[in-house]
Design brief:
By secondary structure, this protein is mainly beta. The chain contains one helix and six strands; from the N terminus they run E-E-E-E-E-H-E.
């Protein structure tokens, strides 16, 4: 999520700017970490909120909070997956 977005993660899953996200391409459900970021949160200016697609093992913004935009390199334009995944 980009700067200015409001993020919430609760028993209903991931919610961005009040809209529940229909995430078809993730592996496992989006859960909170016991420690880390608190929700809901607003993404500060110049920051991004990032989530890994394997949510049960990913260490992402749920754990360490937002990251500076300048620390990112590139943008995903295509995702390739094997059949049946």
């Amino acid at each position: 999520a980009t700067e200015g977005s409001t993020i919430d993660i609760n028993e209903n899953g991931l919610i961005i700017n009040g809209s529940p996200q229909q995430e078809q391409d993730i592996y496992k459900e989006t859960l909170l970490y016991k420690e880390g970021a608190t929700f809901p949160m607003k993404v500060p200016a110049g920051q991004l909120f990032v989530l890994g697609d394997n949510r049960t093992t990913a260490v992402d913004s749920r754990a360490f909070g937002t990251i500076p935009i300048q620390d990112t390199h590139g943008k995903v334009v295509t995702v390739l997956r094997r059949r049946g995944f």
